[in-house]
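Let's practice the habit of predicting before peeking. Look at the sequence and jot down your guess about where helices and strands might fall. Then scroll down.
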Amino acid sequence: MSGGASTAAYLRVSTLAQSLESQQGDIERWCAVNAPNATFFTDKATGKNFNRPAFDRMLKLVNSGHIDRIVIWRLDRLGRTASGLTSLIEVLVERKVNLVSLKDGLDLETPAGRLMANVLASVAAFELELRGERVHAGLKAAYARGYKPKGGRAGRICDPTARVRRQQAVILAEAALAAGQRPSAIKIGEVLGVSRVAVYDFWKKEGFAMPPLVRGGREAEGNGASE
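Done guessing? Here is the structure:
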């Protein structure tokens, strides 16, 4: 790390198609005030496993004592499994490395902050599991209606053809509605590997109309980044 800086800024999205822009803007503004010499680490990889190039480099610097603070946009940017996040938090506490999460208001230097971190880790894992269940429920419904995958790698969740992806966008939206939640174009786009705008376009081409938003209703799994 240059200039003796001891703060690391970590950013992650799940796919190459996704942008780090929303995270980067918030983190850069925070660093400009609190850590102008922070070193940035970015990954485009799933949060389900913790073997990521930039994350590994950052962790080595943590273990060697070169980093004493990590700033992130939200806790699930570090990872999406409760066990992985809990283990990481234990390492950070042991190494006396503070963790600052801008969206979660997290501070590992306090007992309340450490408790909150473990609660949020469980929530992140739960959201991932819930999303997986919805995807499989949507695909199961598609198969029941006669859908057959065309092309793509064996075991691939989302068929690469545009027509099938449009259908899957509708299936996932219908699954959210069946669960009593408002479909999130952001989350569906993350599952399909396309943008939010593309999801709206898919819905339009397939004739799917989003029902009016009822006061007190909520989008499926909220907004923000995936995995």
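How did you do? Strands lie at 7-13, 39-44, 69-72, 98-101, 106-107.
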